[in-house]
Specification:
181 residues; mainly alpha; 3 domains; two-stranded antiparallel sheet; 7 helices; 2 strands; extended
Length: 181
Amino acid sequence: MMCDECGVRPATIHLTTFADGEKKEKNLCATCLTKYKMNLPAMDLTNLAGILGGFIEKALSGKKEEDDTAYSAVCESCGLDYKQFKRNGMLGCADCYKAFREPLEEMLSRMHGNAQHVGRIPGGMNSQVSLRLQIDKLKQQLARAISEEEYEKAAVLRDQIRNLQAELKVKTEVGEGSAHE
């Protein structure tokens, strides 16, 4: 997460202030935090920023060394190795996603809690992809209901899956028909 103030450095401090009954939250880097020290004279935030920054840097540097030695994959298409990716933060080509799949999934899971996209979907694809995601989620719930022997709930989920699959089939056929016209 980047600093809300400068947008250049990573935010290492989450600052929550209450003024006039209003709660304000900011994610700040240690440098931008010093600007707020003037508004909060009773607290010595410089020491706190330094201490927290040191903990975070130490944690990240230990993890970085571990990551660099654990993954030595190289993309066959562009020749980018994992260490280069970690240094510049950019992949070289589409095949890098396959070459670095394991560390990328771990990183996404750490950052977002999940490696699979579950957010918004670009327009046009929205309805079909959304239906497929709903079907997948219901199938997981169905499997859980069956394993927990909740057969009435499983029957309801099964019917919902069938209805969504029928709806998806109709949308797919309509989409294919309009593509050929």
